[in-house]
Structures are given as C-alpha cells and as structure tokens.
Amino acid sequence: MKTSNLSLDQAPPEDIPFRFMVAAPVFGILTGIYLLAYGDRLFITAWSIKTVALVHMVTLGWLAMVMMGAFYQMVPVLVGGHVPGIGLTRLNFYFLTVGISSLIIGLNFWLPVFLLIAVILLGIGITNFVTQLSIALFRMKANRPVVFALRLSIFFLAITATLAILMIGSMYGWWRLGVDRSILKYLHITYGLIGWVGFLLMGVAFHVIPMFYLTEAFPDRRSKQIIILELVGITGLSFGFIFQVPPLWLSLLSFPILLGFVVFIGQIFILLQRRQRKNVDTSLRFWRMGLLCLPLSLICLPISLYRIDEIFTYLFAMLYLIGFASAVTNGMLYKIIPFLIWLHRFSSLVGKVETPTMKEILPDLPAHRQFYLFSGALLLLLISSVYPIDPLIRGIGGMWIVSNTILLYQLRKSLKIQPPEVPPTVSNDDFAAMFANMPPPPPPPKKKD
Amino acid sequence: MKTKPNHLREQILVDCRQMEPPEPMIAVLEKVEHLQSDQEVIMWHRKEPRLLFEKLKERGCDYLTKHEQDGSIKLSIWKSTYENQQS
C-alpha cells in the first residue's frame, strides 16, 4: 500500500483549453465557405496555392487548435507535467489564430505582407507553445508511452514549423535555400502528418480510449512497439526524400509507418471488442470512422507515388486529414468539453445539489446529426477526389458549414451552463450564534440541609 | 509512510471499474458526504483517480492507494478530522 502524493488539482483554468477547442469549428466554417467559394478550382492540383491554403485551414485552423487545447489540458492533468506561463497562453492564442488567418489570406490572395505577418505570429505562437510543453514534458521523469508520444509530437511540430518558415521565406525571396524545395515540402508533410498529428493522436488514444470507453489499459509494450515502428518509418522516409530515391524505395521505407498504424488500429479494435459495457455514442462513432479511414489513407499514399494524376494524393489527404484526424478530434470534443465543464463547475457541488450528466451538458442527438453530415461530406469529398464536379464540391462546402455550425452552437450552448446556487446550510457557528444573546442560566438551587 | 488509522470499523465498497467519467467521482463524493468517522470508502477503479484527490482534501478526507495485481487500484478514503481531534 502506498500513499498517493501526486500534486493536487493541476487542471489549467477552464478557458485555456476551451478557447482553442471552440476556435476549431470557427475555422471549420471558414473551410466550408472556402469550398463553397472556389469549388473545383481547389481540385485542379494539390500543390496550387489555393489548395495549400485549404489544407492549412484544416491542419492549423482545425487540427492544431483542438490539439493544442488538448495538450494544455492533458499534460498537467493526465500526465502530471507543470506547464510554465499558463497565463500567457491566452495571448499566445491570439498570436496563433491571427497568424493562421494571415497565412490563409496571404496564400489565397498572394500577398507576401500577410505571409510575413503569418511567419512572425505563427513563429512566436508555435515557439511559445513548443517551449511551454517541452519544459513540462521533458522535466518529467515519466517513462510511460503516452509521455514519449507527446514529446515526439512536440518535437515534430517544431521541425514542421521550421521547415514551413524556411519554405515561405525561399518562395518569396527572403532567403535562399541550399537544397531542393520539394525535399523540404515532403519532409514538412511527413513530419506534420505522421510526426505531429500521428504521435499526438496515438498518445491521446493510449490514455483516452481506456478512460472514456471503459476498455482494458492500452498495453505499454504494444504502445512502445507502435512508437518505434513510426519513428523507424519517419527516419527512413526522411533519408528517402533527402536522397531522392525512386518510388519503390519510398514505399518500402514507409512500410514501418503503415505497420505501426495497423498494429495501433488492431489493438484499439481488440480493446473495444473486449469491453463489458458496450456503449456506443457519437464520439465512439467518430473514432470508428477514423480507424477505418486511417489504413485506407495509408494504402493510397504509396499508390500516389506511381501515378501521374493526383487522384490518390487527394484521396490520401481526404482520408487522413478529414476521415481520420478531423473525425477523431471532432469526436473527442464531445467527450472532453462536457467533462471539463462538469469538472470545473459542478464537481465541488456533488452531494450538495444535483449535478448534470455529461449528456445533459452536451446532448448526443445534435452530435449524432453532425456525425451524419460529417460522414456525408467525407463521402462526397472522396467522390470529388476522383470526379471533381463543381456543384458537388460547393455543396460539400455547404454541408461543412452546417456541420461545423451545429458543433459550434452545441459547444457554445454547453459553455453557457453555470452551476446552481447552493442552498445555505446551518453550520455549527450559526447554531451557536442563536444562543449568543440569551441570558445566562439561573444558578442551581441551594440544597436544603 | 502514511498508514490507515485503526479506528475504521466499516467499509463501504464503491466499484467504479465499469463507470464512465465523471460517474466514479460522483459515486465516491456522494458516499463521502455522509461518511462517519469510523467508516471508510473503498473506491475500486481501473486507474488512479488523480482529479478526485483535490476534491477529497476539500472535504476533509485522507486517502491511501493500493495497486492490485490486475492493474486496478483500491483507494481507501476516510475522514481525516477524527485523526486531528485525537492528536
């Protein structure tokens, strides 16, 4: 038996994760408007500047916002790391959101001044974030796989952002690169998608799948195997890109990444299958969608290397970014937000007043509707990757706007829920005060001899 | 090392292993609200409920964690006010 002397309430102020997580559907709505405005022009080539802007609305506007919010919440509470300067995070939020908006404007309208603003603001914002979380994660002496996964995720975010700044600078003649820019582009994509997004979602899954879906613990040994496979794959692929090897070699070098993800998915399916209490809610449906899309996306990736057209590049991007990463993070919002609202506002009232359930804070029915809209939009995006029909793509934009508006409305509504007044109780002090002004009791009668 | 006091006579078991967050916290805190000085709540959970510890301190409770072989934990919770009165 041991005394648990863990540090006590380490949760950050509730507005820190909330502001990041609520910003995500706002960028989601902007993504829908963008699809609605430009239609099939976004599907001409994956490397057009407008398509790059669209991709960054998803990767930075949606994914980075949710993931950074999750980091600020998870690292102190779930893994016990102390995040320094948490109050400055509010300022950092503005650096990041204004930086992302500037990047999208700069790319879309080809305005170098906005790109310069984006580089400065995102540079500051991401540097602050990486520094805060690195101090928290690398100071810890934890050897749990979740901590390794989170450390790697932060490390790859730093490299991804650095490569992005180098590429933007070279594109606009701010400086010259000594290497082929396409090498940096492929490294940026690999480190961003597999390193930053992949490791974070894995780390979250190691912890959150057992916690919220009542499975057995994710086996540590399996987690370590998955992390090693991904690392070997990313390293191999990096050398492949640097030395510009032929597609066959790139496919072989990326095989450990595919294998690692297959083991990851297989283990989650086993855990979910063995559950005693097999509840299925919207967040789990999003996870299932993600776990189905992830291997499909990884099949599309090597095929894309052999093809002149970009159908499989688009299919990979849709399946990985929307089908896997966006779906999983969207689903997690339906668990994390009501849990944090309950924790911050209602947990101290248990036993004193009736507290709401998670489903009362964030109901499942609108979430379920949003899931169907999301699934429909994903299906149409996959069709559009093969047959880019303009009205269809604009229609997807409309669906995306509605889907994200439902999510944003639900999140905002749940954030407005406030705890009730606790009825006053009579304490011992109140009871004593009732007798304070009473005359002293009469002396006891004298005994007669 | 801290040990459990000897005066605890009655155990109230709360099996939270199949409860979804925040049900374990609700179940335990409701029991703790009515806990007598000679009673202890045993929370049986899949993992250490870190977020509960602060709430227990706020309610004048002390606790000890015992790790089971299957990876689950048993958390003993009792009113620490009794100990303070004795000392």
Residue stretches of chain A low in confidence (pLDDT < 50, at least 5 long) are 1-8
Q: Give the H and E element order of chain B.
A: EHEHEEH
CATH architecture type of chain B: 2-Layer Sandwich
Examine the secondary-structure arrangement and name the CATH architecture of chain A.
Answer: Up-down Bundle
Calculate the mean pLDDT score of chain A and round it.
90
Classified by CATH, the class of chain B is Alpha Beta
Shape of chain B: globular
- Put simply, the count of helices of chain B is 3
Q: How many independent structural domains of chain A?
A: 1
Please provide the count of β strands of chain B: 4
State which percent range the strand residues of chain B make up: 25-35%
Order of helices and strands of chain A: HHHHHHHHHHHHHHH
**Strand line-up across the major sheet of chain B:** 1-2-4-3
CATH topology of chain B: Translation Initiation Factor IF3
* Average pLDDT number of chain B: 85
- Which band does the percent of strand residues of chain A land in? under 5%
Rg result of chain A: 26 Å
CATH superfamily of chain A: Cytochrome c oxidase-like, subunit I domain
Global morphology of chain A: globular
Helical/strand content category of chain A: mainly alpha
- Largest sheet, strands/sense/barrel of chain A: none
Report on the structure:
The complex is a heterodimer of chains A (449) and B (87). Chain A is mostly helical and 449 residues long. Helices cover 73% and strands 0% of the residues of chain A. Chain A contains 15 helices and no strands. Chain A has helices at 15-38, 49-77, 89-109, 112-139, 145-171, 181-213, 220-242, 247-253, 255-273, 282-305, 311-345, 358-361, 364-386, 390-415, 428-433. In chain A, helix 6 packs antiparallel against helix 7 (220-242). Chain A is globular and about 115 Å long. Chain A starts with 14 loop residues before the first helix and ends in a 16-residue tail after the last helix. Mean pLDDT of chain A is 90; it is low at 1-8. Chain B has 87 residues and is of the alpha+beta class. Chain B has one domain: TusA-like domain (Translation Initiation Factor IF3, 2-Layer Sandwich). In chain B, helix 1 links the parallel strand 1 (10-15) and strand 2. The longest helix of chain B has 11 residues, at 23-33. Chain B is globular. The two termini of chain B are 18 Å apart. The interface between A and B is medium-sized, with 31 and 33 residues.
